[in-house]
Design goal:
- Keywords: Membrane, Transmembrane, Transmembrane helix.
- It comes from Anoxybacillus andreesenii.
- Helices cover about 75% and strands about 5% of the residues.
- It is mostly helical.
- The N and C termini lie far apart (about 60 Å).
Length: about 350
């Protein structure tokens, strides 16, 4: 009966797509950890993914006849594209790959959920559009204090997961497994939101991802040169696994997730349900490492942390969209300009 009601609500298919996206996103953490354990360098895990993404995204964008508008838009502000793409993609993915040197993939995936908190803290740097009876106005974003209360649940969960890890690592290695992920958690929403402002609704998701990949390519090429000097060329195995990551996470997961959110974009409750599916990344990554990397089962404390992270993400997602719905119904009077 419950499944029937979900089907009638029209949210079952988007949720399934969201779960599939989380599954493909989780392969990133599992394969990156596997490459590290087999002797591969995080340098190649990071750079090869984005290098391999280019031809696939090019095919998609060209087949949709959207390449020319993208290139024209990139010519308007080329240095801003390079800067914020490097932040959004470079300072996001390179630190995540570096963190897998010191932490298992499922733990990196769990700590990565800190990005929800980071995104909330970055709100004052951007403006949001409020639709009123008098029209649309832009106001500076505010840190959602109520949402941060639920974010404390996520932080508590991350702390529980990291506590077990702290017992088996030196202080240096422990922090090197956390700090890069925190940096990535701020860089990803910052870079992507800046690029969304620059694009101003003129690009679809594949155009924007391709544009940011191309604009961040100087970083990946420099990192590749450093990789050749520091560790030599990547092995055939690491090259193949990086290709899988590029396809599964960079193309398939992105397409599935944005398709799911697009299907429910006009219903805030359903949108929250779809976004909450991404909390399952932690479980998928953990299952993948247990099956393919023979990882031992985490302790009960770590399981408690995983559950808290998932609950915190779900509550945060629902509360944020309730707030959006409430704001959209508020009748705000524009302030008169001071003379």
């Amino acid at each position: 009966m419950a499944l029937y009601n979900i089907e009638r609500s029209g949210v079952l298919r988007p949720i399934i797509l969201g779960l599939l996206a989380a599954l493909f996103f989780a392969t990133t953490f599992v394969l990156n950890r596997g490459m590290e354990l087999s002797g591969g360098s995080w340098i190649w895990s990071a750079s090869l993914r984005f290098i391999f993404m280019v031809p696939f995204l090019l095919v998609i964008v060209i087949r949709r006849n959207n390449l020319k508008p993208l290139l024209e838009l990139m010519k308007e502000k080329p240095w801003e594209w390079v800067l914020w793409s490097t932040v959004g993609f470079g300072l996001f993915y390179a630190p995540l790959c570096f963190a897998t040197v010191f932490s298992p993939g499922w733990l990196v995936a769990g700590t990565w959920q800190f990005t929800i908190i980071a995104g909330s803290l970055l709100a004052p740097l951007f403006y949001e559009t409020i639709h009123t009876k008098e029209g649309s106005i832009k106001i500076r974003g505010k840190i959602p204090l109520k949402g941060l209360l639920f974010s404390l649940i996520i932080l508590l969960g991350i702390g529980c997961m990291q506590l077990e890890q702290a017992e088996s690592l030196t202080t240096r290695d422990f922090w090197l497994g956390i700090i890069p992920v925190v940096i990535a958690s701020f860089a990803y929403p910052l870079g992507n939101r800046k690029m969304m402002v620059i694009a101003n609704g003129r690009l679809d998701v594949f155009q924007r991802v391709l544009g940011m990949t191309l604009a961040s390519m100087p970083l990946w090429l420099v990192l590749s040169v450093y990789g050749v000097i520091e560790v030599g060329m990547p092995s055939a195995s690491q090259t193949f696994q990086s290709l899988i990551v590029a396809i599964s996470s960079g193309v398939i997961a992105t397409a599935l997730f944005f398709k799911a959110t697009d299907m429910v974009k006009d219903n805030m409750q359903r949108l929250a349900s779809v976004e909450a599916t991404q909390s399952i990344e932690v479980l998928f990554a953990l299952m993948g490492e247990i099956i393919f990397l023979s990882l031992a089962f985490p302790s009960p404390l770590s399981w408690l942390g995983i559950v808290l992270v998932i609950i915190g993400m779900i509550l945060h997602s629902y509360l944020s969209h309730v707030g959006v719905k409430a704001n959209s119904n508020v009748n705000l009077q524009p302030k008169k300009a001071r003379i």
